[in-house]
Each structure stands twice: as C-alpha cells, then as structure tokens.
Amino acid sequence: MNHNTPLSPGHPLTLVHLERTQRRVMTTRELRAHGVPADVLAERCRPDGPWQQILPQVVLLHSGPATGEDRAHAAVLYASRPPHGQHCRSDAMITGLAALALHNFEAVPPLIGLDRIDVLVPRQRRLRDAGEVKIRRSHSLPRPETVRGLPCAPVPRAIADAVADLEDDPATVRAVLIESVRAGHCEATAVVKELTAARLLSRPHVVDAVDALLAEGRTIAEDRLYEMVRCFGLPDPVWNVDLRLPGGPYLGGVDAYWPDHAVALELDARAPRLDDDVLWAEYARKQEHLERLGIIVIRVTPKKLRGSLEQQAMVVRTALIDAENSHPHAYVAVLPR
To answer: For tag attachment on the chain, is the N or C end more exposed, with fewer CB atoms within 10 Å?
Structure first.
C-alpha cells in the first residue's frame, strides 16, 4: 500500500488517525476539513456511537465522560465558531471560576466540579448560552493568557467575572482575592481596578474582601522590602516610622527611613478606589513637603518589588550615595509608628 495516497473521506483509518493524533474535541467544520462527511459524523455521534456531540457543532472524539479540560476546550470552540462563510475567530476566552481553576486556584473547585464554564466574547457577537457554557459579552476584551493550551482571561479580570456571580458566597470571594496575591498570581491593585471597572465595590462583602486583599498585599510587599535590604547588603533603615519637625507639624509616615542620609522609602500600595482622589492628593502633598525639606523620597510599588527586586535595591543604593553628596537637609524627628 502506498502510504502517501490520501485516504477517502470517512475512511476508517482517517477516523482512527483523527482520534489518535488530534485533540479530543473538534468542531464539525474541522472534521469536514479532515474529510469526515456529514453522514459519517452523524453515524459516529449516535447515542451508542464512539463520538458524542457535547455542544452545538462541537464533537468529543470519544464516548467516555468529558474531562474538565475537554469541557473547557469545547466551550472555547463553541464560542469561537464563526458565522457562515467567515474565517474562524480567536476572540473567545475562558473567564470566571473556570479560568481560576485553570490557573490552579485552591479556593475554587476544579474544572470537573464546576457546573458552568464562562466564556468572554466581544459584545457584538451574536451567540447564545448553550449547555453548560455561559457567554459573557464585553466592550473591551483583555489580552488572553494561554493556560494548559486554553485562552484564559488574566487573573484580575477572571476574578471580577467570578465575583459578579458570587453575591451569596462572601467566604469564597474573600478566599479568592487573598489567594490571588498570596500565591503570586497578580498584584492587589490590579484586582481592585477590575472590581472597580465592573462596579462591584458597592457590595459590602466585596468591600470587606478588598480590605483584606489590600492588607495581604501590603504584608507581602513589606516582606519583600525586608528581603531587599537583607539580600543586597543595604544599610539598615528604621522601619515604619512617622516623621515630624521638632516642635512643629507632623510630616507623615514612611515605610523605611535612613536618618543619616535623609532618604525615605514609601510603599505605594494604593489601589484605584471610587473615593480616593482626596487621599491621593494628600499623598502627593506629603511627598512634596518632604522633598522641600531636602529628604529624598523613593516610591516603590508591590509590582516592582515582585518583578525587579535587584533593580529596586539599586535605586535605593543610588539615592543613598547621592544623599551623601547633596546639600544639607532639615532635621526631622523620627518616631515609631
């Protein structure tokens, strides 16, 4: 037999080849492109057949139960299904609890334990929910991340989409938010930004969870500050102190201060909140006041500490060296916070 001879449509070897070499889930369009005619497809998807149609125009190429990842692949294929005569779209992505399960969040059930898979698509798509697939439309789609071969919404967006449906489960909301930063999936500020955009901060249980999230994020960032000073041989600062002019006004608190150099470091762990404009203005005024007194103020974010600890150590070291050659600064009293 000439192994280079194309197999006829629907030939048994073609079907075996598909089952062995292709992914376990395919669309009917893809199967037709591989030479499987409609009558053969219908025969194989009969109730006692070797394949099964698990969503409209989406086929599972085996007869056993679908795994969690089979279901997720099927959901993406269903939501990516193009209108008649158009090329395949790639603008659908898993979001919500299913995306968090793919990201290995311990606070949510595994994929196989979810009764629904949320898929994010552009708002203009004409697509209905089908089976266990819930379609979520959005004017602005995030850039997807590939997780286990599947396009997934980034963790902050997936959290916001999950929280939107967890109004009666504050414990899971809190657990998911804290795990997002504790496990290093993202920064707290990114999560708060997505929750704000989704208008979820009007829910009391979400506000409570956000407060816990920000506290957790700050604790982790502070631990990285301690690690930065220790690992890169920086002079020891005084930690978490208030600054005040002797006999004068309170200047504000800083996370680290080097008194001999008049260098202050502030951890900028602010998150975009609906009522933070006044707070941010006060923060800027404090920095401006300190700098007028000759105090160098370094501002670092949790994201920078997570991604470039050595670079942030260099910034601090440079500031300390520059301070030794700078003009005299005002004397300030340093008080424990």
So the answer is: N
DSSP string, 246-293: TTS-EEEEEEEEETTTTEEEEE------TT-HHHHHHHHHHHHHHHHT
pLDDT of the chain along its 337 residues, tens only? 333 334 444 555 566 666 665 578 999 998 988 888 899 899 999 998 999 999 999 999 988 899 999 999 999 999 986 655 455 456 899 999 999 999 999 999 999 999 999 999 998 888 899 999 999 999 889 999 999 999 999 999 999 999 999 988 999 999 999 999 999 999 999 999 999 999 999 999 999 999 999 999 999 999 999 999 999 999 999 999 999 998 888 898 999 999 999 999 999 876 655 446 666 677 778 888 898 899 999 999 898 998 899 999 999 999 999 988 876 678 899 998 8
pTM: 0.82
Count other Cβ atoms within 10 Å, centred on residue 186: 21
Among 120, 194, 134, 117, smallest CA distance to 163 is for 194
With 0-12 / 13-18 / 19 or more C-beta atoms within 10 angstroms meaning exposed / middle / buried, residue 289 is middle
Q: Are strands 117-122 and 133-138 parallel, antiparallel or unpaired?
A: parallel
CB 192 within 8 A of CB 163: no
**Token pair of 155 as six digits:** 């963790």
140's tokens: 């602005």
Q: How far from the centroid of its chain's Cα atoms is residue 54's Cα? A: 29
Which residues have C-beta within 8 Å of that of residue 186, sequence separation ≥ 6? 154, 155, 156, 180
Quick check: 100 and 153 in contact, CB under 8 A? no
Domains of the chain: 1-64 (no CATH), 233-336 (3.40.960)
What is the distance between the terminal CA atoms of the chain, rounded to a whole angstrom?
84
